[in-house]
């Protein structure tokens, strides 16, 4: 397992023969026999750096990210970040859902890096790789320290989450918003409960996430919704889109930004297995739709975007834009290319 690049002290890197083992001094492996964490293993690491620069070729509207965790118990079948677990020689399927890397020194490390004379105060996107408010945050409590560091330096930032635990940090978010630009996006791709239970089994319900939007807005914190993913043939019927956009508008979101399901390597294989079990009749349709790579055809993406924006306007809401919630859509994995890789779906 490749832990050497995560360790805080690289002075004595492991020999090449040891790179496949858990032997690096920077890693502590823990399991907790409690109902909420049963079957989950935490690998605690002391990271050397917590500020990550987004690759120059990325299409993201931000240059820097902070991700205190790797792997995610939300267990979203489609999660693009699954491939990042392969970089540590960890499984991208069940392993991604249950082998969680925790950067236990993230708050103090971020405070130190923000205080550096070299840091110019650029916008930081938090939780773009995996959710910073997943269940592990309830145990490790890294986000209050991260938010405090950002607030104390008046450093602009945005957060993307499906987690209701963000409400724990309402006061810190409000304090930060008084001194700098703060944007929060909550991810709600659909309101269909049956689809939610199977494709996002470890997440709070869509309604609970909309309650988070309502609470944030009620406390004066601007909050938009990333309507992601819109799942072809399962969540894209006109009545489904209407119900979702209506619910988002009623929650008080300042904007809605649709994002059609994309299937990168790592996620693609895991999603294909899920689809074959739950919706075998759709396998051929997905093979055709994603025959050219990770993304749905442009015509389909444009159709969904147009439909959602028309519904948003109908319900008195708009897409994210200048002056609105900073977009945190479609985060890129480290080293990702913007050219979709063509794969055989199954």
Kindly list the characteristics that best describe this protein.
14% strand; 32% helix; 346 residues
Detailed description of the structure:
- By secondary structure, the protein is an alpha/beta fold.
- Helices cover 32% and strands 14% of the residues.
- It has twelve helices and eleven strands.
- The strands form two sheets. The chain has a seven-stranded mixed β-sheet. It has a four-stranded mixed β-sheet with strand order 1-2-6-5.
- Helix 9 (238-250) links the parallel strand 10 and strand 11 (256-260).
- Helix 3 (106-114) runs parallel beside helix 5 (143-152), helix 5 runs parallel beside helix 6 and helix 9 (238-250) crosses helix 12 (298-314).
- The protein is globular, with a radius of gyration of 20 Å.
- The two termini are 27 Å apart.
- Residues 9-24 and 321-346 have low confidence and may be disordered.
């Amino acid at each position: 397992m490749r832990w050497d690049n995560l360790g805080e002290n690289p002075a004595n890197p492991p020999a090449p023969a040891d790179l496949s083992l858990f032997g690096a001094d920077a890693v502590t492996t823990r399991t907790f026999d409690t109902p909420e964490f049963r079957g989950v293993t935490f690998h605690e690491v002391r990271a050397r750096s917590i500020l990550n620069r987004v690759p120059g070729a990325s299409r993201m509207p931000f240059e820097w990210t902070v991700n205190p965790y790797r792997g995610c118990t939300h267990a979203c079948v489609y999660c693009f970040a699954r491939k990042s677990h392969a970089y540590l020689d960890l499984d991208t399927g069940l392993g991604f859902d249950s082998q969680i890397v925790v950067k236990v020194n993230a708050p103090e490390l971020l405070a130190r890096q923000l205080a550096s004379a070299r840091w110019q105060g650029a916008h930081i996107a938090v939780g773009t790789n995996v959710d910073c408010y997943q269940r592990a945050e309830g145990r490790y409590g890294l986000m209050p320290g991260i938010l405090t560091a950002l607030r104390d330096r008046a450093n602009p930032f945005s957060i993307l989450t499906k987690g209701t635990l963000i409400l724990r940090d309402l006061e810190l978010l409000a304090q930060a918003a008084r001194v700098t630009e703060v944007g929060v996006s909550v991810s709600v791709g659909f309101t269909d409960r049956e689809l939610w239970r199977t494709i996002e089994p470890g997440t709070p319900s869509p309604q609970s996430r909309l309650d988070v939007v309502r609470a944030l807005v009620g406390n004066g914190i601007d909050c938009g919704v990333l309507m992601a993913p819109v799942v072809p043939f399962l969540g894209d019927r006109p009545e489904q889109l209407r119900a979702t956009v209506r619910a988002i508008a009623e929650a008080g979101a300042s904007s809605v930004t649709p994002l059609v399901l994309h299937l990168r390597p790592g996620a693609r294989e895991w999603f294909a297995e899920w689809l074959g079990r739950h919706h075998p009749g759709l396998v051929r349709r997905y093979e055709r739709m994603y025959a050219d790579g990770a993304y749905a055809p442009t015509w389909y993406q444009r159709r969904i975007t147009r439909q959602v924006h028309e519904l948003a306007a109908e319900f008195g809401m708009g897409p994210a834009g200048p002056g609105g919630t900073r977009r945190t859509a479609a985060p890129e994995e480290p080293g990702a290319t913007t050219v979709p890789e063509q794969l055989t779906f199954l």
